[in-house]
Protein backbone atom coordinates (compact mmCIF):
# COMPACT_ATOMS: atom_id res chain seq x y z
CA UNK A 1 0.00 0.00 0.00
CA UNK A 2 1.33 3.41 -0.98
CA UNK A 3 1.88 6.05 1.69
CA UNK A 4 -0.04 9.33 1.66
CA UNK A 5 3.14 11.09 0.54
CA UNK A 6 3.54 8.68 -2.40
CA UNK A 7 -0.12 9.13 -3.29
CA UNK A 8 0.31 12.90 -3.21
CA UNK A 9 3.24 12.65 -5.63
CA UNK A 10 1.18 10.42 -7.95
CA UNK A 11 -1.59 13.02 -8.10
CA UNK A 12 0.94 15.76 -8.78
CA UNK A 13 2.52 13.68 -11.55
CA UNK A 14 -0.93 12.99 -13.00
CA UNK A 15 -1.62 16.74 -13.06
CA UNK A 16 1.58 17.27 -15.03
CA UNK A 17 0.76 14.50 -17.50
CA UNK A 18 -2.74 15.69 -18.38
CA UNK A 19 -1.94 19.35 -19.03
CA UNK A 20 -0.34 19.26 -22.47
CA UNK A 21 -2.99 16.98 -24.01
CA UNK A 22 -5.66 19.33 -22.64
CA UNK A 23 -3.83 22.36 -24.00
CA UNK A 24 -3.40 20.68 -27.37
CA UNK A 25 -7.15 20.48 -27.89
CA UNK A 26 -6.35 23.64 -29.83
CA UNK A 27 -3.88 22.03 -32.28
CA UNK A 28 -2.06 25.25 -33.13
CA UNK A 29 -0.80 25.47 -29.54
CA UNK A 30 1.19 22.25 -29.96
CA UNK A 31 2.85 23.58 -33.12
CA UNK A 32 3.85 26.80 -31.40
CA UNK A 33 5.23 24.92 -28.40
CA UNK A 34 7.24 22.65 -30.69
CA UNK A 35 8.58 25.69 -32.54
CA UNK A 36 9.63 27.33 -29.26
CA UNK A 37 11.34 24.16 -28.03
CA UNK A 38 13.18 23.81 -31.33
CA UNK A 39 14.26 27.48 -31.24
CA UNK A 40 15.58 26.95 -27.71
CA UNK A 41 17.55 23.87 -28.77
CA UNK A 42 15.45 21.53 -26.62
CA UNK A 43 14.39 18.15 -27.94
CA UNK A 44 10.58 18.09 -28.21
CA UNK A 45 10.06 14.89 -26.22
CA UNK A 46 12.51 15.92 -23.48
CA UNK A 47 11.07 19.44 -23.32
CA UNK A 48 7.49 18.26 -23.05
CA UNK A 49 8.38 15.71 -20.37
CA UNK A 50 10.23 18.41 -18.43
CA UNK A 51 7.20 20.71 -18.67
CA UNK A 52 5.12 17.90 -17.20
CA UNK A 53 7.59 17.28 -14.39
CA UNK A 54 7.87 21.02 -13.73
CA UNK A 55 4.14 21.13 -13.03
CA UNK A 56 4.37 17.98 -10.91
CA UNK A 57 7.27 19.39 -8.89
CA UNK A 58 5.61 22.79 -8.46
CA UNK A 59 2.27 21.35 -7.35
CA UNK A 60 4.04 18.91 -5.03
CA UNK A 61 6.14 21.68 -3.47
CA UNK A 62 3.06 23.80 -2.83
CA UNK A 63 1.13 20.83 -1.41
CA UNK A 64 4.00 19.81 0.89
CA UNK A 65 4.57 23.41 2.05
CA UNK A 66 0.86 23.67 2.93
CA UNK A 67 0.79 20.14 4.45
CA UNK A 68 -2.07 19.15 2.15
CA UNK A 69 -3.46 15.65 2.12
CA UNK A 70 -4.22 13.87 -1.14
CA UNK A 71 -7.89 14.85 -0.80
CA UNK A 72 -7.01 18.48 -0.05
CA UNK A 73 -4.72 18.56 -3.10
CA UNK A 74 -7.81 18.48 -5.30
CA UNK A 75 -8.74 21.95 -3.99
CA UNK A 76 -5.34 23.46 -4.78
CA UNK A 77 -5.70 26.48 -7.04
CA UNK A 78 -4.18 26.20 -10.51
CA UNK A 79 -2.99 29.80 -10.22
CA UNK A 80 -1.04 28.85 -7.08
CA UNK A 81 0.67 26.03 -8.99
CA UNK A 82 1.36 28.40 -11.90
CA UNK A 83 2.98 30.89 -9.51
CA UNK A 84 5.17 28.13 -8.05
CA UNK A 85 6.49 27.08 -11.48
CA UNK A 86 8.29 30.39 -11.85
CA UNK A 87 8.39 31.55 -8.23
CA UNK A 88 10.16 28.67 -6.51
CA UNK A 89 13.86 27.93 -6.76
CA UNK A 90 15.01 24.58 -8.16
CA UNK A 91 15.99 23.28 -4.73
CA UNK A 92 12.53 24.21 -3.39
CA UNK A 93 10.90 22.19 -6.16
CA UNK A 94 13.11 19.19 -5.44
CA UNK A 95 12.67 19.25 -1.65
CA UNK A 96 10.43 16.64 -0.07
CA UNK A 97 10.13 14.28 -3.01
CA UNK A 98 9.43 10.61 -2.32
CA UNK A 99 12.49 8.39 -1.90
CA UNK A 100 11.27 6.06 -4.62
CA UNK A 101 8.88 6.50 -7.51
CA UNK A 102 6.21 4.04 -8.57
CA UNK A 103 6.62 5.18 -12.19
CA UNK A 104 10.08 4.92 -13.77
CA UNK A 105 9.20 7.80 -16.10
CA UNK A 106 8.76 10.10 -13.11
CA UNK A 107 12.06 9.05 -11.59
CA UNK A 108 13.88 9.60 -14.89
CA UNK A 109 12.25 13.00 -15.45
CA UNK A 110 13.15 14.15 -11.93
CA UNK A 111 16.74 13.01 -12.47
CA UNK A 112 16.91 14.99 -15.72
CA UNK A 113 15.47 18.02 -13.93
CA UNK A 114 18.13 17.65 -11.21
CA UNK A 115 20.84 17.36 -13.85
CA UNK A 116 19.63 20.55 -15.56
CA UNK A 117 19.39 22.35 -12.21
CA UNK A 118 22.86 21.39 -11.02
CA UNK A 119 24.69 21.76 -14.33
CA UNK A 120 24.18 25.52 -14.49
CA UNK A 121 24.72 27.97 -17.36
CA UNK A 122 22.78 26.89 -20.46
CA UNK A 123 20.83 24.21 -18.58
CA UNK A 124 19.54 26.78 -16.07
CA UNK A 125 18.41 28.95 -18.95
CA UNK A 126 16.57 25.95 -20.40
CA UNK A 127 14.85 25.36 -17.04
CA UNK A 128 13.82 29.01 -16.90
CA UNK A 129 12.30 28.74 -20.37
CA UNK A 130 10.54 25.49 -19.50
CA UNK A 131 9.17 26.97 -16.26
CA UNK A 132 7.70 29.83 -18.27
CA UNK A 133 6.16 27.33 -20.69
CA UNK A 134 4.69 25.35 -17.78
CA UNK A 135 3.24 28.52 -16.28
CA UNK A 136 1.77 29.49 -19.66
CA UNK A 137 0.12 26.07 -19.98
CA UNK A 138 -1.45 26.33 -16.54
CA UNK A 139 -2.60 29.90 -17.17
CA UNK A 140 -4.27 29.01 -20.47
CA UNK A 141 -6.06 26.02 -18.93
CA UNK A 142 -7.17 28.11 -15.96
CA UNK A 143 -8.57 30.75 -18.33
CA UNK A 144 -10.54 28.06 -20.19
CA UNK A 145 -12.14 26.71 -17.03
CA UNK A 146 -15.74 27.52 -16.23
CA UNK A 147 -15.01 27.88 -12.51
CA UNK A 148 -13.89 31.37 -11.42
CA UNK A 149 -10.89 29.99 -9.51
CA UNK A 150 -10.06 26.61 -11.11
CA UNK A 151 -8.47 23.92 -8.98
CA UNK A 152 -6.59 20.70 -9.65
CA UNK A 153 -9.92 18.88 -9.40
CA UNK A 154 -11.25 21.00 -12.29
CA UNK A 155 -8.26 19.99 -14.44
CA UNK A 156 -8.70 16.32 -13.48
CA UNK A 157 -12.37 16.58 -14.41
CA UNK A 158 -11.48 18.07 -17.81
CA UNK A 159 -9.00 15.26 -18.41
CA UNK A 160 -11.56 12.62 -17.43
CA UNK A 161 -14.15 14.19 -19.72
CA UNK A 162 -11.61 14.18 -22.55
CA UNK A 163 -10.86 10.50 -21.87
CA UNK A 164 -7.25 11.12 -20.88
CA UNK A 165 -6.79 8.58 -18.10
CA UNK A 166 -3.03 8.29 -17.77
CA UNK A 167 -2.87 7.45 -14.09
CA UNK A 168 -5.09 5.74 -11.57
CA UNK A 169 -7.16 7.88 -9.27
CA UNK A 170 -6.23 7.77 -5.57
CA UNK A 171 -8.99 5.27 -4.77
CA UNK A 172 -7.80 2.85 -7.50
CA UNK A 173 -4.35 2.28 -5.98
Would you kindly provide a written description of the structure presented here, covering whatever features stand out?
The chain has 173 residues and is mainly α. Helix content is 71%, strand content 0%. The chain has helices at residues 4-23, 27-39, 44-65, 70-73, 78-87, 90-94, 104-119, 122-144, 152-161. It is globular, with a radius of gyration of 15 Å. Mean pLDDT is 88; it is low at 166-173.
Give a short overview.
With 173 residues, the protein is mostly helical. The protein contains 9 helices and no strands.
Question: Which helices and strands appear, and what pairs or packs with what?
Answer:
Elements: H1 4-23, H2 27-39, H3 44-65, H4 70-73, H5 78-87, H6 90-94, H7 104-119, H8 122-144, H9 152-161
Helix pairs in contact: 1-3, 1-8, 1-9, 3-5, 3-7, 3-8, 5-8, 7-8
Keywords:
about 170 residues, mainly alpha, 9 helices, globular, disordered C terminus
Using the alpha-carbon principal axes, give the shape.
Answer: globular
Amino- and carboxy-terminal Cα gap: 8 Å
| Helical proportion, percent range | over 70%
- What is the gyration radius calculated from CA atoms? 15 Å
Biggest pleated sheet: none
Tell me the series of helices and strands, N- to C-terminal: HHHHHHHHH
| Distinct helical segment count | 9
- Can you give the mean pLDDT? 88
The secondary-structure class comes to: mainly alpha
Stretches with pLDDT under 50, minimum 5 residues: 166-173
Secondary structure: number of strands: 0
Beta-strand share of residues? under 5%
Amino acid sequence: MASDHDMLWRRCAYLGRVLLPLLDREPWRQGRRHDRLRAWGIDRAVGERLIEVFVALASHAVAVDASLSVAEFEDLSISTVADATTGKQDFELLAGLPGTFADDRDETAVKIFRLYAYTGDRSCLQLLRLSTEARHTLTVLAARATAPFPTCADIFRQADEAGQRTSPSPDET
